[in-house]
Amino acid sequence: MQTKQPPTQTDEPWSEEAFIQTLQQRKRRVFAWGTGSTLLATTLFLYHAHLTYSPPPPTNKRPQTHTIPHKKHTTTHHKKHTTTHHKKQRITTPTTKKTKTDGVWPGYFRSRRLAAEKLSPRYEALKIIHNPKKRPGPSDWLSSFTEPGQSFKQYLVSSPVRRNEVYNNIYIQPLGTFTKQQRTLLRHTARYMSLYFCAPVVLKKPLSVYIPPEAKRTNPHTKQTQWHAGYLLRYVLTPRRPVDTLAYIGFTATDLWPGSGWNFVYGLASLRERIGVWSMARNGTLGRSKRETRMALRRTIKIATHETGHILSMKHCTAYECNMNGVNHQKESDTTPLALCPICLRKLIWNTKCDPKKRFRRLERFSKKHGLHKEATFFRRSAAFFDKHSKTPLSEELRILRKYKFFLRSAGSFQK
How far is it between the farthest Cα atoms of the chain? Predict the structure, then answer.
């Protein structure tokens, strides 16, 4: 049986033409293989993309339409009574346009997370009548400053300045000279603050102070004299702060500014020193009309309660439209409510141990007496919501307080 012998190399003579032909054949085979692989990979990719592709929702929707049958209308022309029958008309309802306050803005998701904080049922019920923080305008506070906000849990563990047996009174110290109408406004402000914070408010006699040249200036825009707010806090209010003060607030009719780079400031307060100062220079003219007097009162009590909230270690609110919102100009301040949002209200009630329902009723009577009807209506609604849910068990609230009881034990002792 013959076995198959392996092929042996032929002894053909080497030729350049045969060698070039062999290289060309190999090159064609390699090119064909590469082209086929590329086409196969491209085909598989497109097939996979076709399977996984989902078209986006259409953006330019046609406006929704509905048909409204019109009733018969009788029209009179030159004493001739004719009845006109209108056929069914196709009425186009335009879609709602987005306003400047809609959409996502820097800090939007952080604001919504703070607003979604779980509180006790009584405070959760109040969220229905409070508006979430709207999109800030180009010159508003949150467009100029990035702030994280402050939840109720964060407030508990921050060792806030708190009302107790030692620190119980709020003092208002007028600085400089005041007119008769301004002194009346001061008395109304002191009364409102006592109802707002459920604490005694002492209105002291006006104090004449010396302001050195380096602590005052002439505003380049308004040409009015301004006092340095930091100088008043450090060298005027701090040395005169009473021992039993919960908040020692200076009040002046002169415009304030906090330092270089600032045009003015409505007020300034310390989160730990229990002192603050605010001005009524930009709150309007008193006595010109009842409307302007009410506006000046609203602006004054808003600044006073806002700065006192800072003294109680409450930071700027970014969750809701709230009295603790930061403001950058007068229009933004006027659109900010006097009431606290549910989260900031929970901080205040925990701090001062105030009865929320009685507080709302007293603020309603004050607002109605002084012509602040919009605020009176809001306080009345808040009291009704609180009264409706007053018998709801506070399991969630008690759970939070037990969780942070170590921090709560030391919070009252952190006072300067």
Answer: 136
**Hey, is 349 helix, strand or coil?**
helix
DSSP letter at 320 equals B
CB 325 within 8 A of CB 336: yes
Helix axes 290-311, 180-197, angle to 10 degrees: 50
* Rounded (5°) CA angle 407-348-254: 120
70 belongs to a structural domain: no
The answer to whether the beta carbons of residues 268 and 277 sit under 8 Å apart is yes
CA–CA separation, 191 vs 176, rounded Å? Answer: 21
Beta strands 73-77 and 216-218, pairing class: unpaired
CATH code: domain of residue 266 = 3.40.390.10
Q: Answer whether 0.70 is exceeded by the pTM.
A: no
Token pair, residue 164, equals 């107790």
Which pLDDT does position 30 carry in this prediction?
59
Structure tokens at 243: 């021992």
Asked if 30 contacts 55 with a C-beta cutoff of 8 angstroms, the reply is no
pLDDT at res. 412: 44
Residue 13 lies in a domain: no
User: What is the tally of structural domains in the chain?
Assistant: 1
